[in-house]
């Protein structure tokens, strides 16, 4: 047969799967534990006659267990629903635990008090605004940052912008072209002449793309175009760009 | 020939501005001149190499072994101890759980699973599933890669297919009453494994281990160990009238 003292001496000294030990305290993870601490009088495993107060979905119950029912784990807990009125609930506890040890009556009352307090607090909080705290895992966060950087590089936004601008240029949305300083123009021309002659229109356009960003570049291209036109048309061109 | 000694190394002695540890002879390779033989050297043997002829076995008296066995069996009947071991028996209808002999005739694992579910023992098996993980440490590369919890133990009298039905369910062990194994009843040295007995197995316990009134029929001259205290509620004893009456007043 089961004896509490023996059970406690085994659980305490040897192993209990519900015990959590910190440097200063021993806690009990058992859901029926009255105080949450691991001690001789509050261990639900080492006391066959045991009572707790628990709350499920906002309703508070008194759970009791006696030695007669100790060997039927499915049926051992007797559940008494406590009144929502705090004073009445206290009376109910006293009634049900009338011949029990003072320890249980006292702790059950204290636990009932704490539970009602946190329930009212929960209701109050729900009425007000709630900030949702979202934990950010550092690993995930860093991973996302790294991927953002990579995506930025992969998107090649510069190229896309160039293409867009050149497309617009080709379509003729920019009717007028600005005048650019002469020097930069000349520099550009020299540079272009060093490169091999381009005959494909595509390559032609590609090179245009490279130079769209800055004024100088635009003018350089346009100058180059102008040169090409000259070469083709054999018309003497001005240094001013002409489109 | 053990590892670390497969060299003919000799110390260079003093006068060479090096430590006096034995060094590998010869030349032409990286290895030459390196320290050898010590537990501190790279490629040397370990301190006190472990030997296979270590005394592994211990002689323990038969009575002591039976005492342990009997205590373990007793512990399986205490729901508190079984729960403290971590088994999920919160929904089990009764502890100790004794099942009809039909279980011994089960042959399909599906039926075995159904039986466990009906008796509310399946939550314990679910716990085993959840506990499957890799062992931490070097055991992983020494053929001890995966670990999991222990589940319920089925104790039968006659195997008519039962072992094969329960074989593939993780965590579940089966054992015959005649050959009860302490390593299965108290795994890890902690008493209180969740046991499911078949009816005939349960009945056999009396003849196997005896009751205090009757000796065991199977074990010669064996009877259950006598408890040190008949009434173990020490606190209550001390508070009782009989004892309080005889105590002197506290100073």
Automatic annotation (TrEMBL), chain A:
Keywords: Nucleus. It is found in: Nucleus. The keyword Nucleus applies. It comes from Portunus trituberculatus (Swimming crab). It comes from the Eukaryota. Residues 190-220 have a biased composition (Acidic residues). This is Protein MAK16 homolog. GO terms for biological process: maturation of 5.8S rRNA; maturation of LSU-rRNA. It holds the Pfam family Ribosomal_L28e. Residues 7-118 form the Ribosomal eL28/Mak16 domain. Gene3D superfamilies: 3.30.390.110. Residues 190-243 are annotated as: Disordered. InterPro entries: Mak16, Ribosomal_eL28/Mak16. One of its GO terms (cellular component) is preribosome, large subunit precursor.
UniProtKB/TrEMBL annotation, chain B:
It comes from the Eukaryota. One of its GO terms (molecular function) is structural constituent of ribosome. Residues 220-251 form the Large ribosomal subunit protein uL4 C-terminal domain. One of its GO terms (biological process) is translation. Pfam families: Ribos_L4_asso_C (PF14374), Ribosomal_L4 (PF00573). One of its GO terms (cellular component) is ribosome. Keywords: Ribonucleoprotein, Ribosomal protein. InterPro entries: Ribos_uL4_C_dom, Ribosomal_uL4, Ribosomal_uL4_dom_sf, Ribosomal_uL4_euk/arch. Belongs to the universal ribosomal protein uL4 family. This is 60S ribosomal protein L4. It comes from Portunus trituberculatus (Swimming crab). The gene is RPL4.
